[in-house]
Amino acid sequence: EAQVTQNPRYLITVTGKKLTVTCSQNMNHEYMSWYRQDPGLGLRQIYYSMNVEVTDKGDVPEGYKVSRKEKRNFPLILESPSPNQTSLYFCASSIAYNSPLHFGNGTRLTVT
Amino acid sequence: GQNIDQPTEMTATEGAIVQINCTYQTSGFNGLFWYQQHAGEAPTFLSYNVLDGLEEKGRFSSFLSRSKGYSYLLLKELQMKDSASYLCAVMGGGGGNKLTFGTGTQLKVEL
Fold this sequence. Notes:
Chain A has 112 residues and is an all-beta fold. Chain A is 0% helix and 51% strand. The termini of chain A are far apart. Chain B is mostly beta strands and 111 residues long. In chain B, strands 2, 4, 5, 9, 10 and 11 form a six-stranded mixed β-sheet that branches. In chain B, strands 1-3-8-7-6 form a five-stranded antiparallel β-sheet, with no helix packed on it.
């Protein structure tokens, strides 16, 4: 089944403890991206990747890192999480940057 | 930067037609998407417009006017399951590859 898989679905952590949210797609998509969704603010792009080894900042990249070493994987790294990074995170992929996005099921992160 | 406006909430009756508007400002316009998002779920793709005009897909249609920076999503024969948030997203920016979402329109379908 064609899908975008994010893990974990739920994560509670403490300030400063490094974490990684994984994202994998099995559709051979070129484009991958990360979003956070907060009430009243909608979906905001954190980082995106047009292809392997090519990543770029979205609208809210501060406090996040990404890597795209392989086409299928695009992990989101929080080196030192803070409470303002408590949010619902979505990974998404598409055939090309101007094609419809396929979203993962989301990761609800709480930082205390 | 890019700016997108859409109404926060709308209410409509089952069986009726509803139009959800979206206005935007961007440079390097490269397409407009509509997504549907049910509460607690991921967004799912509904439609894509890059040229002016109407795109029809079953009960859902989407219209684009690039000169006016305006789009709408038209939902016909509303069903209770259409109660969801509808997200307008614009691809543009300097390089034409930056996707920005509006804050979404929460549609409530009532009996």
